Automatic annotation (TrEMBL):
GO terms for molecular function: peptide-methionine (S)-S-oxide reductase activity. It catalyses: [thioredoxin]-disulfide + L-methionine + H2O = L-methionine (S)-S-oxide + [thioredoxin]-dithiol; L-methionyl-[protein] + [thioredoxin]-disulfide + H2O = L-methionyl-(S)-S-oxide-[protein] + [thioredoxin]-dithiol. Has an important function as a repair enzyme for proteins that have been inactivated by oxidation. Catalyzes the reversible oxidation-reduction of methionine sulfoxide in proteins to methionine. This is Peptide methionine sulfoxide reductase MsrA. The gene is msrA. Residues 2-141 form the Peptide methionine sulphoxide reductase MsrA domain. It comes from the Bacteria. Its EC number is 1.8.4.11. Gene3D superfamilies: Peptide methionine sulphoxide reductase MsrA. Keywords: Oxidoreductase. Signal peptide: none annotated.
Amino acid sequence: MVEPFEEQPGILNVVSGYTGGHVANPTYEQVSSHTTGHTEAVEITFDADTISYPKLLDIYWQQTDPTDAMGQFQDRGDNYRPVIFVKDDAQREAAEASKTALAASGRFSDPIVTQIEAAKPFYPAEPEHQQFYAKNPRRYALEHAQRQAFIDKTWKDQ
């Protein structure tokens, strides 16, 4: 999820990490054990004068399978569930509106299961999990191919 956002003008920072759980400062191993309640997520800092929150939502929808409640592509489990964490009522309204519009678009035959939840404490992932795509280009290329095939099929008319 980092690369598609980092490529956009107005994105100041993208950090990989964990949020939504009940353990302070979780490690990757703890989150992967499915016992902390955390979801792997990215925290995005952006310049709203350059890129709008609705544009960020558009990018998000085009990177995920919003009909898969138990993971994303090769990443399986509740820690990979599709969720948008919002910081305030304005973000919630925009996220709900974009979710409703996506559901009404007919692009997906299955229901949109992406959750929209209030932001909770965010814990940056360990350094080796930051910039995964740049640090692990071979592995990322293999994983990216599966995601890209889905994106190309689902979003080809955009």
